[in-house]
Specification:
This protein is an alpha+beta fold. The chain has one domain. It is built from 3 helices and 5 strands. Strands 1, 2, 3, 4 and 5 form a 5-stranded mixed beta sheet that branches. The radius of gyration is 16 Å and the shape is globular. It starts with 17 loop residues before the first strand and ends in a 6-residue tail after the last strand.
């Protein structure tokens, strides 16, 4: 990534306001057979040990970027929807996740929207 040293918010693998995070990409399978509903998921949960969502996105994007052409072909199939979902479990009510422009650009180049599911854990669960 370029310009990472100019960032106001550097990576922080111990992200103090986060209890748990990961990124997930989901899409219907794209197979030619008739299926009512199908799901394909790739998750960083078992691969990235960080509370910084950017580390998880970097992991995911590194796997998706070489497949950009195939992803574009699948996205052109009627009814296919793709998204990157980022669950975020907050320890406190402020200081949420941060994305860098490089990650947003890569998501845009792959035509992937990014959503956040934000949960506020009770004090006894943090």
């Amino acid at each position: 990534m370029s310009n990472v040293f100019s960032r106001r918010t550097p990576y922080d693998d111990e992200y103090g306001t986060c209890a748990e995070t990961r990124v997930e990409r989901t899409t219907p399978s794209g197979r030619k057979r008739t299926v009512r509903n199908s799901l394909w998921e790739l998750s960083s949960a078992a691969h990235v040990q960080s509370l910084d969502i950017r580390r998880h996105l970097d992991w995911l994007l590194a796997r998706l970027k070489p497949q950009a052409r195939g992803l574009a072909e699948i996205q052109n199939i009627a009814g296919v929807r793709m998204t990157v979902n980022c669950p975020w479990y907050s320890r406190v009510g402020h200081g949420g996740p941060t994305l860098w422009p490089e990650q947003m650009l890569q998501l845009a180049e792959l035509n992937l929207e990014c959503s956040f599911d934000i949960y506020f854990l009770p004090d006894d669960e943090t």
